[in-house]
Specification:
Order of helices and strands: HHHHEEEEHE
Number of helices: 5
Strand order of the largest sheet: 4-3-5
Distance between the termini: 35 Å
Structural class: alpha+beta
Shape: globular
Largest sheet: 3 strands, mixed
Number of strands: 5
Helix content: 40-55%
Length: about 140
């Protein structure tokens, strides 16, 4: 993601563009693959030492609330951040703690059809995201 794309993502969420927000979204994008709080903080501190840890946490919270990024929780309870805004699921490796995006339109259709037929009483479904747990390279 280029600097202009980062700025546009922040603006599109209705947030004011600040150097701190740019730095934190840039960190998430450059680290890639669903970085944790600790990874984002380490990156930001190495490139922008004047940004406080509290500022990083506050901005991450505002990014989640304003749909700039999504929060993904691992089986170990570690919060990770996902900048990919298109619909997808996750493959989570219990051995390596690795998270990969998983896109499957056929699966999405199956889930949508299932809940159209079955539904859940007194509950309106807005979205379904799966986290499929297993192991990569289990050979």
């Amino acid at each position: 993601m280029k600097d202009n794309d980062i700025i546009q993502s922040i603006k599109a969420a209705g947030l004011r563009v600040t150097p701190q927000r740019i730095a934190i979204l840039e960190a998430i994008m450059k680290i890639g693959k669903h970085p944790s709080n600790d990874q984002i903080i380490a990156y930001v501190k190495s490139h922008h030492p004047s940004i406080s840890v509290a500022t990083v946490y506050n901005i991450l919270d505002s990014f989640v609330q304003n749909h700039v990024v999504d929060k993904v929780k691992t089986e170990n309870g570690v919060l990770r951040y996902d900048p990919k805004r298109t619909h997808h699921h996750h493959l989570y490796c219990t051995k390596s703690d690795k998270i990969e995006d998983y896109v499957d339109a056929e699966l999405d259709d199956l889930i949508a059809d299932y809940f159209k037929k079955k539904g859940i009483e007194d509950f309106k479904i807005e979205d379904v995201k799966l986290q499929i747990t297993g192991e990569f390279n289990f050979k």
